[in-house]
Design brief:
Length: about 900
């Protein structure tokens, strides 16, 4: 018997329908993508929204009633009824990069997606058309800049390794073409007398044209007004973005046409500030040099100019050395001089040599320079020395010699070969400079300037320098560093009662112990008195983790210093107070940083000494709370404080086919601790491994219990696996042992992996997933769509299911883009033969949308919250999962 429909209900339904239609029309009219509606039966365009009209430049009337292939933008792509028939049959077509033309003839790149739906019995194809022209242009620009960055990198490598201009020029031109994707590159040098510019090196398409063109830097020459001549004459970069239509390039446009040059860049090259040539590059497309590209090419030219200056300076240095060799022949100088014949027999020595070595002329003449040989250098050293002399006719360097009295000392030795007009060596001239006192003075000065004389630790001056380096390193790597201000407790009492000598012994021992506590690259310094400074470098980027690392080192320092100190004849027990100031980049001055650490140190003293304090009080509170939580977490597993909750997973018919296993921490004092608090901490500390194994063990045990009930033996459990747990070498064996121990069918469990876990070590992931898949274990990719993984990996991995992240599900009907993403994931999963499940389903509207687009598995508060096993089983009974016969759809009961 049917119940008559109430007129009031009919009016409400009509009102709701009109409101829905009005809402859809507003969305249609205001959408930021083009939308085109096609009648499937007539192939006519039913409607287009304003965005598409504005995008393509056709009026609304020019679209309506036309076939898709009759409208200009689509006539090239959809040129026959057969193509429309394909669209009609498939119902869903996607073009990720479809070129269209506007009515004005402008080219636009669009993303074209179509879906078919029923509208009051009429089949409508909705075509969503998104303008991606700017995005594609940005991608091209990024690719171009990447090529130029690579070319710049190759340029810098060449600068480092090349030893002359010719070699450098060739590598620079090759780098610009091969890595920078230029058509051609050449370097021209200017003739200082004629001002003519001739190629010194070239590479690429059209290099043969350079032999036929004339280029000048002379302003009165008809060939001196182009980009190259202007760049040299005015010492500035010159860009021609449209070479074939640039009035300044007319004399060379025929050559450009033959070679495919569409744009050019001409950059002056300098040697020690003087323009000596030009670096010219040619691109195959117009407007190839935007601001970023110009900056990179200017930087490349500056680097090349720097190298040219270095080459010139090196040449000048060698010329100066030649002059010195000639001057060294002048005999009587302040340096020790000896002259030998071609056979290395000493012919003469000067007075300075006699004073340095203690040998008089009578004792030295007729001997060889081995007379002062110390024996500290091996035969290989002398072999290399004489090889250099033979090759270069010159050698210099430090050498250890021995005086007549046996004292070994350091000399700076310069040996020059003297040749006759035929180039034959006739003599060797050796110049000796005694470096002994110089080295001693240098070491003393350096030590006094930068080190504490008592402890040999860096002093304040060197500390400031080290801090500046730490600031720079922190800025480069975006990580934290820490400054520790350490003050010994009650040191004044020791000094006053036992004297400064005993106090100095303690300071020396404390310095030694501090050095034993720090890592390589860290610094320990002494400010004076009993105040020490420690710089900890390369801490974590995250401030909390950096604070934890710092605290661990400080705990070690406090423990080490508190051990007894043997001072002459008795043990002295000492403690310290430490103030800590974390920093990243150069946020404050060195003085302010020291002041903050000093303030924190006095807070530590006020707290009872033998303790540490951070400058930031909030950081101190957070760190203490984190430490307490970590200690509780370590006791939670052995204390049986963890619980497993189950959140049901439902099919489109309403049947509960399984659940996701979720861990909860029931702390005896804190109550229920959020997984958002303890899961990241468990991953940081490594506790996630035993916790994850416990969850897997508990879930399998529950599945085994459910096997005894014929109505629950079909249930499957989805179990989350962390990256640290999954990438353990024995993870596959762990899973197999647990399944074997419970005699459980592997198909009953489904391991949920995140995209980030999969990509962390893709080879290890593939191997382990295939090993477990062969065993029967199933896999679901959790949070799919939130990462940046390559979709190509999906075809390599034995994934059974994709899980749509709840962030997208929540925005269904709210954000059009997220709705499109959801549809895309569903379509991709279906095409790849995978299941797809949506998590976070909270409303009936979301479920209906998902079902309409092909997603038939759901999880979320619409069906039930995560609950303990007892409540879960009670819900199962309530929905009929424990009852014979088919159950009504769960969402019809919710």
């Amino acid at each position: 018997m049917q119940t008559p429909t109430s007129p009031l209900l009919t009016k409400r339904a009509l009102k709701a329908l009109r409101a829905s239609e009005s809402s859809y029309r507003r969305l249609f009219e205001t959408a930021q993508d083009g939308i085109l509606l096609l009648n499937v039966d007539t192939a006519q365009i039913e409607d287009v929204n304003p965005y598409l009209v504005n995008m393509l430049g056709y009026t609304h009337a020019e679209f309506l009633g036309k076939k898709l292939w009759e409208v200009g933008p689509f006539s090239d792509r959809f040129e026959s009824k057969e193509m429309f028939a394909e669209l009609k049959i498939k119902g869903y077509i996607r073009y990720e990069d479809l070129p269209l033309k506007t009515k004005a003839g402008e080219r636009v790149q669009v993303e074209f997606v179509s879906n078919t739906y029923d509208c009051d019995g009429v089949q409508i194809i909705q075509c969503n058309i998104r303008d991606i022209t700017k995005r594609k242009a940005a991608e091209v620009e990024i690719q171009r800049l990447t090529h130029l960055y690579t070319a710049l990198s190759q340029c810098n490598k060449a600068i480092v390794h090349c030893t002359n201009e010719e070699e450098l020029f060739l590598k620079i031109c090759c780098a610009a073409v091969r890595f920078g994707r230029m058509k051609m590159a050449w370097i021209g040098l200017i003739n200082a007398e004629t001002l003519e510019v001739r190629p010194a090196c070239s590479f690429g398409s059209g290099v043969e044209e350079l032999g036929n063109v004339k280029i000048s830097a002379d302003i009165v020459s008809p060939f001196g007004h182009g980009p190259t001549g202007t760049a040299i004459r005015e010492n500035r970069p010159v860009w021609s973005q449209d070479y074939m239509n640039d009035p300044l390039t007319v004399p060379w446009q025929e050559s450009a046409a033959r070679s495919g040059w569409a744009a050019s860049a001409s950059l002056p090259l300098c040697r020690n500030g003087l323009v000596i040539g030009v670096f010219s590059l040619y691109a195959g497309e117009t407007n190839a040099f935007d601001e970023a590209a110009c900056d990179l090419l200017v930087e490349m030219a500056i680097d090349v100019s720097f190298a040219l200056s270095n080459f010139a300076n090196e040449t000048e240095r060698k010329r100066a050395e030649q002059d010195l060799r000639i001057a060294a022949i002048a005999f009587e100088t302040q340096e020790g001089i000896l002259i030998t014949d071609a056979y290395k027999v000493i012919l003469r020595i000067n007075k300075s040599f006699a004073r340095q070595t203690g040998y008089c002329a009578e004792e030295a003449i007729g001997k060889t320079p081995a007379l002062v040989k110390s024996g500290k250098q091996d035969a290989e050293f002398y072999r290399q020395m004489w090889d250099a002399l033979t090759r270069d006719q010159y050698w210099n360097g430090e050498i250890w010699n021995r005086r007549k009295n046996g004292e070994v000392y350091l000399d700076w030795l310069t040996i020059t070969a003297v040749t006759d007009v035929e180039g034959k060596i006739t003599n060797y001239v050796a110049s000796y400079s005694d470096l002994s006192q110089f080295k001693k003075n240098e070491a003393t000065i350096h030590s006094l300037a930068f080190y504490d004389p008592l402890t040999s630790l860096p002093n304040r001056r060197l500390l400031v320098d080290r801090l500046q380096h730490t600031f720079a390193a922190s800025a480069r790597h975006s990580n934290h560093a820490a400054l520790l201000f350490i003050d010994l407790d009650n040191f004044k009492i020791l000094n006053d009662t036992k004297g400064h000598n005993i106090g100095d012994l303690l300071l020396i021992e404390v310095a030694r112990r501090l050095l034993s506590c720090i890592r390589e690259g860290d610094t320990v310094a002494r400010l004076g008195g009993d105040e020490f400074i420690v710089i900890l470098q390369e801490l974590d980027e995250e401030p909390l983790e950096a604070a934890a690392q710092t605290e661990a080192i400080c705990d070690k320092i406090l423990s080490t210093i508190s051990q007894p100190h043997l001072l002459v004849d008795y043990d002295y027990h000492c403690s310290a107070s430490i103030g800590i100031c974390l920093f990243c980049n150069q946020e404050v001055t060195v003085d302010e940083l020291l002041k903050r650490a000093d303030t924190a140190m006095y807070q530590a003293k006020s707290a009872g000494r033998n303790s540490l304090r951070f400058y930031d009080p909030a950081m101190q509170v957070v760190l203490e709370a984190r430490t307490a939580l970590e200690n509780d977490l370590r006791r939670a597993l052995s204390g049986n404080q963890f619980r497993v909750h189950y959140q049901m997973q439902v099919g489109h018919t309403g049947h509960i086919f399984g659940a996701e296993v979720l861990i909860r921490w029931l702390h005896p004092h804190r109550g229920l601790v959020s997984p958002m608090q303890f899961i990241p901490l468990a991953e940081e500390t490594g506790l996630i491994q035993p916790i994850g194994q416990w969850v897997l063990e508990t879930a399998c045990a529950q599945l085994k219990l459910w096997e005894t009930n014929a109505l629950t033996c079909h249930l499957q459990l989805a179990i989350n696996v962390s990256a640290l747990q999954f990438h353990q070498p024995d993870f596959v064996d762990q899973v197999r042992r647990i399944l074997h121990r419970h005699a459980l069918n592997p198909n009953r469990i489904k391991l949920e992996l995140t995209e980030s876990l999969v990509l962390a070590n893709i080879d290890d992931t593939i191997a382990k997933m295939h090993a477990l898949r062969q065993y029967g274990v199933r896999f679901s990719m959790d949070d799919f769509g939130t990462g940046y993984s390559s979709l190509s990996y999906l075809t390599q991995l034995p994934i059974d299911q994709l899980k749509i992240d709840q962030s997208f599900v929540h925005n269904i009907g709210v954000k059009h883009g997220d709705s499109i993403i959801v549809q895309t994931i569903i379509g991709m999963a279906n095409n790849l033969g995978m299941e797809v499940i949506a998590e976070g389903v909270e409303t009936e509207e979301q479920r209906v949308f998902l079902e309409q687009h092909g997603c038939t598995l759901y999880q979320g508060y619409l069906f039930g919250r995560p609950v303990p096993v007892g409540e879960f089983e009670k819900k199962l009974r309530g929905t009929g999962a424990f009852t014979q016969g088919s159950a009504a759809p769960y969402f019809a009961r919710a």
